[in-house]
Amino acid sequence: MPEGDSIWRAASRLNEALAGKIINASDFRVPRFATLNLAGWTMTEVVPRGKHLLMRLAGPVDEEPGASRKPRALTIHSHLKMEGSWMIYPPGGRWTKPGHTARCVLRTDSADAVGFSLGILEVVPTAEEEKIVGHLGPDLLGPDWDEEEALRRLRAEPDVTVGFALLDQRKLAGIGNIYRCEACYLSGIHPALPVGEVPDLAKTINDAKRLLGENLGPGRRTTLGPRALRPGYWVYGRERQPCRRCGATVRRGLLAGPDGTEERDIYFCPRCQPAP
Ligand SMILES: [Zn+2]
């Protein structure tokens, strides 16, 4: 799953390329929306919500006498899941990914946006966006970030491991595997520790929030400031390498969800993050 900062960057690029632009042609290559034509619609904005991308469009004003002059509003909702991406090309420009993986093509006078291998692609009335993303917890990168609400949702299930809870987008939105491993390390807690036993849960989620916020530019790193030249992580992907703080060997393990499923890799320092 992508991290929230990836979605934030994708939304930012798409918004820059498409906001205010009129769609000249659209092509939805999924059965449910194969006949949908958004030509004439205007992209108003592209916003991230957790790991979801919302492209908001305003419909052409209906000139029929007596018709409502209020523009209709639609949202293209997509989720990148494991393999997905949105690419931006000059109009008619050559694609850099295989054409058969394209799921959505939006053409404007100044750019073509193509969504490849999208995990979710659907079009809904903007008024119904909440049905799609309303279940999400507070967004770590959102303008409406609510720390108290995130803590409340996390603490509501105190027996769940903190490593699993941080990935649960219903509790708080935006953390993927990299930042959950790094945030646990920075808090000195093992990912298998139950949420209810984390000494300072607010610090843990604020560490994750800070790391996400520091990585909204190109490249990603957690150990050094955003302007540093040498990128790296504290523990993520560093199996068998020495801990940057204590020198102990970083380990990789698996952490299961509460029902024993959805095992994901965890990376941790056995000395800085003692097993519960
Ligand atoms: Zn260590």
Automatic annotation (TrEMBL):
Protein keywords: DNA damage, DNA repair, DNA-binding, Endonuclease, Glycosidase, Hydrolase, Lyase, Metal-binding, Multifunctional enzyme, Nuclease, Zinc, Zinc-finger
Pfam families found in the cross-reference section: Fapy_DNA_glyco, H2TH
EC number(s) given by UniProt: 4.2.99.18
Database matches in PROSITE patterns: FPG_CAT, ZF_FPG_2
Domain annotation FPG-type: ranges: 234-274
InterPro entries to which the protein is assigned, alphabetical: FPG_cat, FPG_N, H2TH_FPG, Nei2_N, Ribosomal_uS13-like_H2TH, Znf_DNA_glyclase/AP_lyase
One BP annotation, GO: base-excision repair
A GO term, aspect molecular function: oxidized pyrimidine nucleobase lesion DNA N-glycosylase activity
Entry superkingdom: Bacteria
Protein name per Swiss-Prot or TrEMBL: DNA-(apurinic or apyrimidinic site) lyase
Source species of the chain: Paenarthrobacter aurescens (Arthrobacter aurescens)
Lineage: Bacteria, Bacillati, Actinomycetota, Actinomycetes, Micrococcales
